[in-house]
Write a structure and sequence with these properties.
The complex is a heterodimer of chains A (about 475) and B (about 100).
Chain A: H1 6-14, H2 20-38, E1 41-44, H3 48-62, E2 72-76, H4 103-110, E3 114-119, H5 153-160, E4 166-171, H6 177-183, E5 186-189, E6 209-214, H7 217-227, E7 257-260, H8 271-286, E8 290-293, H9 302-317, H10 336-347, H11 350-363, H12 369-389, E9 395-399, H13 415-419, H14 426-431, E10 435-442, E11 448-454, H15 460-473
Parallel strand pairs in A: 2-3, 2-4, 7-8, 7-9
Antiparallel strand pairs in A: 1-3, 4-6, 5-6, 5-10, 9-11, 10-11
Chain B: H1 5-14, H2 21-38, H3 58-62, H4 77-81, E1 87-88, E2 91-92
Antiparallel strand pairs in B: 1-2
The chains are: A alpha/beta (about 475), B mainly alpha (about 100).
Chain lengths: ~475, ~100
């Protein structure tokens, strides 16, 4: 059996062809076997086998109605799972094991999902290549000399390599969508406030969202339905009902309007990516969608806005890592403030330090108005761009990333060049709109290319429907060179 | 405006980061580059534009997230101290403040 999609796996469990236990064992085996080449996992959870046993007993008793019963999942290591490590890809958390589950984890577990491990990521979710992890980079299953994207590189690789059918990540500036694009899988960042951030270690509180990876749109829809919804523990979740995301998937997309922004297809975009995304637009035309030209005039400023707001919020959120209550504490620091400084100097990696300093700078006295307030004003203009565009279309299509996967080490010495990988994705976090990346082709050297669909607030049903329609019309059945053995 | 080495040192102090001189040599120009990049926002006219703070979506802004002021169970002292580098007598023990 190979790690198929959720419906396939559930029906194989129902028929007795396999069991939750066998699936979890296969996932654990694959994770372990491939870890030397991929470094996708930081921790594995053999206890999931006990949980699988319970699911199997329950399934025998009552035809397994829990939506994700028996499905192995992987979780990015910045989301708290009780009893498992949560390192955030950093040394500063030491051997921290959270005493609680994130809300999204509680919901996954209640739906019968089985957590096989915690995945590698850029430190505190800061990065676009998974090269900022304190525990080594993740390698792209399509070409292990290349990056999987970031910051949720481990989760993207785990799904792309067939280890698990779905995984959770987090997306602050594109950290689910961009690695999804580079690894040839589906990646969703929902509307801000759709998913609870309780238990997601905060990077930038007004931008962060838990996101979902899957090889099939239907699987991402299934997981969204499980984890979405208001949470009293997270005041930023919105009181908006959670629809049945799967039921709308096969609906007709004829007459839906797709916004095409020509200005975003210019300089800086890899030629093969441009061709692949434009071909996807043609597929939508053939399926009966209408294509209209739109513009997002302030999109060109999005990276500048993002790197002020995200770093400012990060400088505040990461102040809690000080060696007092959890994680690593530096030795040889006999005075309190010396202890703070030494702990943070030794515990944080360079990118994290850079961003904390940037954030502190833009918030400091005399600079707050010039930088942070200004950035929040331009953010309003970006939100307005989307509002106006969505008066004329139901969804906007863009590339997800400006290039396919680049080589390990290629951009590490130029932070600004690295930041420009997020050029198509940060706008969605700034505006709060949902974004979905779908594989739409391979480059001439067999590296995945992704297209991104952006929609108005709460339009996940439409985005998933559009993505599903594309997936049916133009299936992406390619497999990377590093892939879990069929058992 | 160009960032000086002393600006960076001051910022490091504010952020409780003890940056080594070799790191400063590298970080300094990188941060200066990034600040220079973000200053392109000055070209945009934002007169009378409200900063985008808060719930982002109208539905989020409308959601009443207050709860009754009632004591509810929380982590508890034992769990709260379980991951501490140095717990003592029910407290987080830290080096002295000079």
């Amino acid at each position: 059996m190979h790690m198929g999609n959720i419906d396939e796996l559930k029906s194989r469990i129902q028929s007795g062809e396999t069991s939750a236990r066998a699936l979890v064992q296969a996932a654990l085996n694959a994770a372990e076997e491939l870890n030397e080449r991929l470094n996708a996992f930081l921790a594995l959870n053999p206890k999931a086998l006990e949980g699988a046993g319970t699911v199997d007993k329950g399934l025998k008793a009552n035809s397994g109605s829990a939506v994700l019963a028996g499905i192995p999942v992987a979780i990015k290591d910045n989301i708290c799972v009780r009893g498992l490590q949560t390192s955030c890809g950093s040394r500063i958390l030491g051997d921290y094991h959270p005493p609680y589950n994130a809300t999204v984890i509680e919901r996954l577990l209640n739906a019968g999902a089985l957590i096989v491990g915690k995945t590698n990521c850029d430190e505190f979710a800061m990065g676009s290549s998974n090269e900022n992890s304190a525990f080594g980079p993740v390698r792209n299953p399509w070409d292990p000399t290349r990056v999987p994207g970031g910051s949720s590189g481990g989760s993207a690789a785990a799904v792309a390599a067939g280890i698990v059918p779905v995984a959770l990540g987090s997306d602050t500036g594109g950290s689910v969508r961009q690695p999804a694009s580079l690894c040839g899988v589906v990646g969703l960042k929902p509307t801000y406030g759709r998913n609870s951030r309780y238990g997601l270690v905060a990077f930038a509180s007004s931008l962060d969202q838990v996101g979902i990876f899957g090889r099939k749109v239907a699987d991402v829809a299934a997981v969204l339905g499980v984890i979405a919804g208001r949470d009293p523990h997270d005041a930023t979740t919105a009181d908006v009902p959670v629809p049945d995301y799967k039921s709308a998937l096969a609906e007709d997309i004829r007459g839906l309007k797709i916004g095409f922004p020509p200005a975003l297809f210019g300089k800086g975009l890899d030629a093969e990516v441009a061709v692949a995304v434009k071909e996807a637009v043609d597929v939508y035309r053939k399926l009966g969608a209408e294509v209209v030209e739109i513009d997002l005039p302030h999109a060109q400023y999005a990276i500048a806005v993002y790197y002020i707001i995200a770093t400012a919020e990060a400088s505040s959120n990461l102040a809690r890592f000080d060696g007092v209550r959890y994680g690593f504490r530096a030795e040889d620091a006999p005075e309190l403030r010396q202890m703070y400084r030494k702990t943070r100097e030794e515990g944080f990696g360079p990118e994290v330090k850079r961003r904390i300093m940037l954030g502190t700078y833009v918030l400091s006295a005399g600079y707050y108005d010039a930088y942070y307030r200004k950035a929040q004003q331009v953010r309003t203009l970006i939100k307005e761009d989307f509002r106006k565009a969505f008066e004329r279309c139901d969804a906007i299509i863009t590339p997800t990333a400006p290039t396919p996967a680049f080589s390990l080490g290629e951009k590490v010495d130029d932070p600004l060049a690295m930041y420009l990988n997020d050029i198509y994705t940060v706008t969605a976090n700034l505006a709060g709109v949902p974004g979905l990346s779908v594989p739409c082709g391979l480059s001439s050297n067999r590296l995945p290319i992704g297209m991104q669909l952006l929609g108005p607030y709460w339009s996940e049903p439409n985005l998933l429907k559009l993505a599903h329609a594309y997936e049916q019309a133009s299936p992406f059945n390619e497999r990377p060179q590093i892939y879990a053995r069929d058992v | 405006m160009p960032i000086t080495k002393s600006d960076i040192e001051k910022v490091a102090q504010l952020a409780h980061l003890e940056i080594a001189p070799e790191e400063l040599e590298i970080f300094g120009p990188q941060i200066a580059d990034i600040v220079s990049y973000v200053e392109q926002l000055n070209a945009i006219d934002t007169t009378n534009i409200e900063p985008a703070l808060g719930g982002l979506t109208p539905e989020g802004a409308r959601t009443d997230s207050a709860r009754d002021d009632r004591v509810e169970p929380s982590l508890g002292q034992e769990l709260a101290l379980a991951e501490a580098p140095d717990a003592a007598a029910g407290y987080f023990r830290v080096p002295k403040v000079l």
